[in-house]
């Protein structure tokens, strides 16, 4: 399983209607997380490093990330983060 991260182009953000999704915020911190569902996130502030079996990714302001269902990770919030998130599948828009 891999985390997909890509730069959010305005056209994709608009197609996803990502700015209407709920938001989540976190101060600088570290915590473990397990994804029971696929989650798509649009990062509007901050920077994180996410470690998982098989690698790690850095996600920052202006990125879209997709976390697959069943993935266990360790979040390292390096700068306070704010993101929009959705549990709907958006694979057709992000390819």
What do you see in this structure?
- 12% of the residues lie in helices and 57% in strands.
- It is built from two helices and seven strands.
- It has one domain: Sandwich (Jelly Rolls).
- It is globular.
- The chain is mainly beta and 95 residues long.
- The model has no long low-confidence stretch (mean pLDDT 93).
What are the SSEs and their pairings?
Blueprint: E1 4-7, H1 10-16, E2 23-26, E3 29-34, E4 39-52, E5 55-60, E6 63-67, E7 72-86, H2 91-94
Antiparallel strand pairs: 1-6, 2-7, 3-7, 4-5, 4-6, 4-7
Question: What keywords describe this structure?
Answer:
mainly beta, Jelly Rolls, globular, seven-stranded antiparallel beta sheet, 7 strands, 95 residues
At CATH level 2, the architecture is Sandwich
Shape: globular
CATH class membership: Mainly Beta
Based on the structure, what is the oligomeric state of the protein chains? single chain
Beta content comes to: over 45%
Largest sheet: 7 strands, antiparallel
Q: Name the CATH superfamily classification.
A: Jelly Rolls
| Domains, number | 1
List low-pLDDT spans. Answer: none
**The CATH topology:** Jelly Rolls
Cα-based radius of gyration, to the nearest Å = 12 Å
Mean pLDDT: 93
Contiguous helical run count: 2
Question: How would you concisely characterize the structure shown here?
Answer:
This protein is mainly beta and 95 residues long. It has two helices and seven strands.
